[in-house]
Amino acid sequence: MGLETVGPADWSELSIARPPARPEPVTRATAASPLTPHQTTPTQPAPVQAVAAPAIAPSPPASEPFLSPILSIEDRRLRLFAMDDGEVRGCTKCGLCHSRTHTVFGEGAVDARLMFIGEGPGHTEDQTGRPFVGPAGMLLDRMIGAMGLRREQAYIANVVKCRAHLPGPPAKDRAPAPEEVAACSPYLERQVEIIRPEVIVTLGVPASQFVLSTRLSMSRLRGNWHTWHGVAVMPTWHPSYLLRCEKEGNLEPKRQAWSDLQKVMAHLGLIPPKKSA
Q: Could you give the count of Cα atoms lying within 13 Å of 160 in the half-sphere of its Cβ?
C-alpha cells in the first residue's frame, strides 16, 4: 500500500492468449491412473514394471456444499444488512475491536456471480469502512474492469472485518492471527452462503489458505480450480503484491494474475471489453 501508481492502464495488454471458448471444469487434482500391464502368454511371463505416478500437489479437503435454499434478492439484502448492522459493527469477539476505526463488512451486488475475498482491511479501509479502496483497491477495480464487469457487479469482502496491524510507529498492517480468523471468519462463510456466487477469487496467501484449508504456497495454489462449499475457487496474487512487484520491475506476477482471471472469465462466459481505438 502507499504506492502512487497502480500499473498499466490496460490490463488486457498483459494477455498472451485469449480465454478458451469453453469453461474449464472445476475438478480436484488426482493421481494418474496406473498403467495396464501388457498381456503375456503363460509360457513366457513378462515382468510388470512399476510405473511411478507423477508428483501432484495434494488437494485441500473439500467442504460440504451449502444446503440452505437460495434466497431472493430482497432476502439476501435484508440478511446481509442485518448481519452488518446488528452483529459485525458491534462485534467484540477478538482484540481487533479495540483498535479499529470502522468495521469493513463488504460491498457489492447481493446476487453477484463473482466474489473477491481478501485477507483483511488496511489503513484506508479502516478509515472509510469500505473494502479495497486504497491503491490495491484501485488496481482491483481495473482488474474487474478488464474482465468486462464493474466493481458494483461483483461482491468484495475479507476474511476478517477489522484491521490487523502493528501500532508502530509507524503503524504497519499484519496478517490476522489464527484466533482472530477463527472469531471473524464465520461472518464470511455466512456472506458466501447468502450471496451464493458462482466463482470466488481469493486474493493473496492468507485468504487462499483459509478458504482452501491448506498450507500450500501461493505459487502452488494459483491458476488451479478448487471448490469451497460447492463454489468454484480461483486463487491469485493480492493486488498489493502485484504493486510491489511492479515497483521492482517484475511484471510476471501480474501476467500470472491476468491468466488466472482469464480462466474465471471463461468459466463465467464473460467477454472482455474492446480496446478503444
A: 28
Q: Are 6 and 138 in contact (CB under 8 A)?
A: yes
C-alpha span between 141 and 80 (Å, rounded) = 22
Amino acid, single-letter form, for residue 243: L
DSSP state of 237: -
Query: Residue 1: exposed, middle, or buried by beta-carbon count in 10 A (0-12, 13-18, 19+)?
Result: middle
Count of C-beta atoms within a 10 Å radius of residue 263: 21
Cβ-contact 157, 188 below 8 angstroms: yes
Kindly state the cell numbers that stand for 103. 468495521
Q: Are β-strands 172-173 and 165-166 bridged in parallel, bridged antiparallel, or unpaired? A: antiparallel
Cβ atoms of 84 and 76 within 8 Å: the answer is no
The candidate with the shortest Cα–Cα distance to 157, out of 199, 198, 127, 200, is 200
Secondary structure letter of residue 170 according to DSSP: S
Flag whether pLDDT at 239 surpasses 70: yes
In the prediction, which pLDDT does 268 show? Answer: 98
Burial (Cβ within 10 Å: 0-12, 13-18, ≥19) of residue 266: middle
Read off the DSSP letter of residue 16: S
Reduce the DSSP state of residue 55 to 3 states and report it: coil
- Residue 228 pairs in a beta bridge with 231
**E strands, the chain, in order:** 107-108, 114-118, 155-158, 165-166, 172-173, 199-203, 226-228, 231-236
Task: Please state at what angle helix 252-268 crosses helix 239-247, rounded to 10 degrees.
Answer: 150
The C-alpha cell of 28 is what? Answer: 480436484
For residue 241, the model assigns a pLDDT of 97
Would you state the cell numbers that stand for residue 94, as one nine-digit string? 477478538
Spatial separation of the C-alpha atoms in residues 240 and 206, rounded to whole Å: 13
pLDDT given for residue 169 in this prediction: 87
Find the Cα–Cα–Cα–Cα dihedral 84, 87, 91, 94, rounded to 10°.
Answer: -100
